[in-house]
Amino acid sequence: MKMSKGLIGRRFGRRFLGLAFLLAAVAAGGTVSAEELVGQPNAWALDLQGGVTPVMDSIAKMHNGLLVVITLITLLVTSLLVIAMVRFNARANPVPSKTTHNTLIEVAWTIIPVLILVGIAVPSFRLLFEELDIPKADLTVKATGKQWYWSYSYPDNGKFEFDSLIAEDKKPRMLAVDNELVVPVNKVVVVQVTGADVIHSFGVPAFGIKVDAIPGRLNQTWFKATKTGMFYGQCSELCGRDHAFMPIAVRVVSDQDFAAWVETAKKKFASNPENAVASAADVMR
Fold first, then answer.
1. How far are the Cα atoms of 7, 94, 95, 243 from residue 89, in angstroms, in the given order?
2. What is the DSSP letter of 216?
3. Angle between helices 54-87 and 103-132 (to 10 degrees)
4. Which residue in 22, 89, 221, 268 has a CA-CA distance of 20 to 30 Å to 211?
5. What CA–CA distance (Å, rounded) separates 200 from 149?
6. How would you write the pLDDT of the chain (285 residues) with one tens digit per residue?
7. Are 246 and 150 in contact (CB under 8 A)?
8. Which of 207, 252, 255, 258 is nearest to 228 (CA)?
9. pTM across the whole model
10. Beta-bridge partners for 151
11. β-pairing verdict for 219-223 and 229-235
């Protein structure tokens, strides 16, 4: 028994709609999972890490808006393909149309993509300006990428420097370090980034920052964390053999705790700088 084209179309539509709802449910579940642990990756998460800075909030809004746009475009193109396959195949349409031009369609498929791109460009430029227009710093930190660890210095707080190496006996695995970068909450922190040997990349997803650490060049980025806690990142540039063992750990604390930590760090690192420099045995595996 032959099934009508309308029945086939309705069944296909119901299945397609069911698949769309399933994907939406899975995405929603991934979003909830991503909010369980802030500042680090989550198992089976599908969304971005939860943001704790104004820049990351803007990135998340941009991401969500683009997700809607590309989903609508994908559904439109898929619908047109299905219509073309069902209504205009050789069996359903044995005598094809000989129409070669349609002014309305040709104008539409030129103007609509241009409007979509302009609509995407405006918030993109606004986001880029927010990321690159560095406000006045409350605290300046210098991060130097080395093979394969990070060195941090605080030029505004006594010019002490220390190294931050992966700590294999601490959690979370592959992200914990022995000496975290410590910053105060609700303060504009400007990070000056450079490389000592090869190109590295300083990135912390929860802060919405990622900037290359290039030898001989000083790049800058900034963030303003609105929550206290631990936030993790990694070197995002393939920098050599132990690239995977070069995490970034940032501890955001209150103003009082930061002031107390600075005094402790001055005694621990500035009084004996040799203790702050990683030895070759620490970084060679």
1. 17, 8, 10, 53
2. T
3. 160
4. 268
5. 10
6. 444 555 455 555 555 555 555 555 455 444 444 346 778 888 888 888 889 999 999 999 999 999 999 999 999 999 999 998 998 888 888 888 887 888 898 999 899 999 999 999 999 999 999 999 999 999 999 999 999 999 999 998 887 899 999 998 888 999 999 999 999 999 999 999 999 999 999 999 999 999 999 999 999 999 999 999 999 999 999 999 999 999 999 999 999 999 999 999 998 886 555 544 543 334 434
7. yes
8. 252
9. 0.77
10. 144, 163
11. unpaired
Rg (C-alpha) for the chain, rounded Å, is 26
Beta bridge partners of 150: 145, 164
SS3 194: strand
Sign for the CA dihedral angle at 163, 169, 173, 176 comes to: negative
C-alpha 159/C-alpha 14 separation (Å) is 65
Beta bridge partners of 143: 152, 193
As a whole number of angstroms, the distance between CA 131 and CA 145 comes to 21
For 99, the 3-state DSSP assignment is coil
Question: Which residue intervals of the chain are DSSP H helices?
Answer: 5-34, 54-87, 103-132, 255-265, 280-283
Output the CA angle 178-183-188, nearest 5 degrees.
150
Residue 53: which residues within 8 A CB-CB, separation 6 or more?
206, 207, 208, 209, 223, 224, 225, 226
Cα separation, 63 vs 205, whole angstroms = 13
Q: Taken in order 66, 68, 70, 72, is the CA torsion positive or negative?
A: negative
> Of 112, 122, 118, which Cα lies nearest the Cα of 72?
112
